[in-house]
Design brief:
The complex is a heterodimer of chains A (325) and B (338). In chain A, 58% of the residues are buried. In chain A, helix 9 packs parallel to helix 11 and helix 11 packs parallel to helix 13. Helix content of chain A is 45%, strand content 4%. Chain A is globular and about 50 Å long. By secondary structure, chain A is mostly helical. The chains are: A mainly alpha (325), B mainly alpha (338).
């Protein structure tokens, strides 16, 4: 049975920022803030938080502040956006540096994104999506500013996104997709409104994401992908139905998606790894009780101990942590 | 990254690629710097616009540059253009996004840009026909999105866009047309969950608006689903849809009929997980909701049947055995009540 090669993955994450010569590195600048949050969270779960320099990271985050918008962009010079703003807040929270933030301005930005329908846009140009709704609610929650949110309006929109299969889509009318199920379920958890969920139907739909090869897909008849190890798993964890899938087979699937030479985890065995699949693979393993990993909070996808310290823990359940062999 | 195979490059191959990329990288970084500097200076010139065209071709996910491009149009080009010129420019923008979407059908920001273009079409071609240009674009959009769905029937960006177009068209298509579209998609492939999902939305809307008789319509749906079930009992889309159909009514007659129909299918396909699973679910509904109406003997039979099915399910669908265990425990409790 394969094992998680922590040392190799730590080196992989450390190497990501080093290759400034790499064209792909620069072509993904629009994801940089997110990528740093993904890398940092993976390191935390693997108990190697200090593998990346704290000061450098905080400095980079602050250099992405878009003063026009009152928000963070993905990279210096990039426009403020709700997704990169959440990632920035998450990074600073993990590093105990939330005091660096202009909270009133950020709150103003976040609240300005809410549309009359209750959904949130990503920025002033208005692409709407429940992902952005989650980003805004999670960000407000981490900043201790949830009281500024119109909760009824927000929950009202999520209700309209609920589908015939118990799941949720990107916008009202959209097909259920595991990532959208995660953002809606996690938002409802933050807002203490899990009563909006048809537990049995949704848990059923989620459990059916497990394929014979042990991996999880995001929708019926689609391919397995390691990132669904988090989207599906965290949702099941919030619904306290994690036992409804086969944990051992999923662990095996995630482990076989590791790159044994260069480290990192890919979307499925044999594919190119990236930091996105690395964090969600590792977070999934943590929820499944894989030994020697730190607990991850499925609602925030951040270290569970930190979320608990911030007074934000909700009633989710992970599998008990196994002892190392 | 998704679906990219890992390739073991030799050190030499990696170095060669890095050298080749150096020139591209230098050009890309220079172009990015030049464009972002102009953005900071609020440069709304044609030259700036052309820079964004080049940059977006190299990196279509660069959201900041799409935004800059839109701002250049709004603050620079539009104010100095006639409605006809604006319309022509937006027509070119739509062509650009069509070409881009063919290469990158799942990039959110390209779809967003397309919507923005449509929403900014000016009144025209004349004062007496202010919606002429708009109507022409909206009609074409339905055609464009149909092509995208022909290429990939599960592309949720395209389905979301389709719903957006249908809702935004100045002259709305009748919903029955959309029902017919979903029928076509489903008949082409029963496991097109996206089409079943769309169908659930269209029907709900038609039922709530009283545009079709819900009872007759639901019966037609059961017919359609039964056909699909028998054709491919392993396809989950159909079973998920069936469960929704059943939940839309509360008459035990339909429930009994559907149970009988699925039992018939199970007799032909004794290993069908979906048949077994659905039978358990519907029998549990009978046990829970109709508890006062069924006699003790029938209760006992239902409970025994459920437990037997759940036992078999644990063997044929072992991934989800704990769920079946949970249901068995619940069913046993229902037996203990009497």
């Amino acid at each position: 049975m394969a094992r998680l090669n922590v040392a190799l993955h730590v080196r992989y994450i450390q190497s990501l920022g080093e290759n400034k010569d790499d064209l792909m590195y620069h072509l993904t600048a629009h994801l940089r803030m997110n990528a740093i949050y993904w890398g940092l969270t993976a390191l935390c779960v693997m108990n190697h938080k200090d593998a990346l320099d704290r000061e450098e990271m905080i400095e980079f985050v602050m250099s992405c502040w878009d003063d026009h918008a009152g928000a963070f962009g993905a990279h210096p010079g990039h426009d403020g956006h709700v997704h990169s703003t959440l990632s920035a807040i998450q990074i600073l929270a993990i590093h105990g540096a939330l005091d660096r933030l202009d909270v009133p301005r950020i709150v103003k930005f976040l609240l300005s994104l809410q549309q009359p329908s209750g959904v949130f846009a990503g920025d002033a140009f208005g692409e709407i999506d429940t992902r952005f709704l989650y980003c805004a609610v999670s960000a407000l929650s981490l900043l201790g500013q949830l009281d500024k949110l119109d909760i009824e309006k927000t929950v009202g929109y999520i209700q309209r996104c609920r589908n015939f299969d118990g799941g949720f889509g990107a916008v009202a009318g959209a097909e259920s997709h595991a990532a959208q199920v995660f953002v809606c379920t996690a938002t409802l958890a933050i807002l203490d409104r899990l009563d909006e969920i048809d537990y049995e139907t949704l848990a059923w739909w989620l459990a059916e994401r497990q394929l014979p090869n042990g991996g999880l897909n995001g929708r019926p008849e689609k391919l397995e992908d390691v990132c669904y190890s988090f989207w599906v798993l965290s949702s099941l964890s919030i619904l306290n139905k994690l036992t409804w899938i086969d944990a051992d087979k999923l662990v095996e699937f995630i482990l076989s998606s590791q790159d044994p030479d260069n480290g990192g985890i890919a979307d499925r065995p044999g594919d190119q790894p990236d930091v996105f699949h690395t964090v969600f693979g590792v977070a999934g393993l943590s929820l499944l009780g894989y030994p020697e990993l730190d607990d991850v909070d499925p609602v925030y996808c951040m270290p569970a101990s930190l979320i608990e310290k911030m007074g934000l823990r909700k009633g989710w359940q992970a599998l008990p942590r196994k002892k190392a062999e | 990254m998704h679906g990219v195979k890992r390739v073991r490059y030799s050190k030499e191959a990696l170095e060669a690629r890095r050298q080749r990329d150096q020139a591209r990288l230098k050009e890309y970084l220079a172009l990015t710097e030049q464009t972002l500097v102009k953005k900071e200076q609020n440069d709304w010139s044609q030259e700036a616009f052309d820079l964004t065209t080049r940059l977006l071709h190299l990196c279509p996910e660069f959201y900041t540059i799409w935004k800059y491009r839109r701002n250049i149009m709004l603050d620079g080009i539009f104010p100095r253009s006639s409605p006809l010129e604006i319309n022509e420019l937006l027509s070119e923008e739509l062509s650009l996004t069509t070409a881009s979407l063919k290469l990158h059908p799942k990039v959110y920001v390209i779809w967003t840009h397309r919507r923005w273009c449509l929403e900014n079409v000016p009144d025209g071609p004349s004062e007496t026909d202010p919606n002429g240009w708009r109507s022409a674009y909206w009609n074409k959009e339905l055609y464009v999105v149909e092509k995208m769905l022909d290429a990939d029937a599960r592309n949720f960006h395209a389905w979301n866009y389709r719903r957006y177009v249908l809702a935004s068209m100045p002259i709305k298509r009748p919903e029955q047309n959309e029902l017919a579209y979903t029928t076509r998609k489903i008949e082409a492939n029963f496991s097109n969950f996206s089409a079943w999902h769309q169908r659930s939305k269209v029907l709900t809307s038609l039922w709530e608006a009283g545009k079709v008789d819900p009872h007759a319509s639901r019966e037609e749906e059961f017919e359609l689903v039964r056909n699909a079930m028998y054709t491919d009992p392993a396809d989950q889309s159909v079973w998920i849809y069936h469960r929704w159909l059943v939940s839309r009514g509360d008459d035990s007659e339909t429930l009994h009929r559907e149970i009988a129909s699925i039992q018939e299918l199970l007799d032909e396909q004794p290993d069908s997980k979906w048949c077994m699973e659905s039978l358990v679910f519907y029998k549990r509904i009978l046990l829970r909701n109709q508890a006062s109406n069924i006699i003790d003997a029938e209760r006992e039979v239902l409970i025994t049947q459920c437990l037997r099915l759940l036992d078999m399910l644990q063997t044929i669908d072992p991934n989800r055995r704990h769920r079946y265990e949970d249901h068995a425990a619940e069913v046993k409790k229902l037996g203990d009540v009497t």
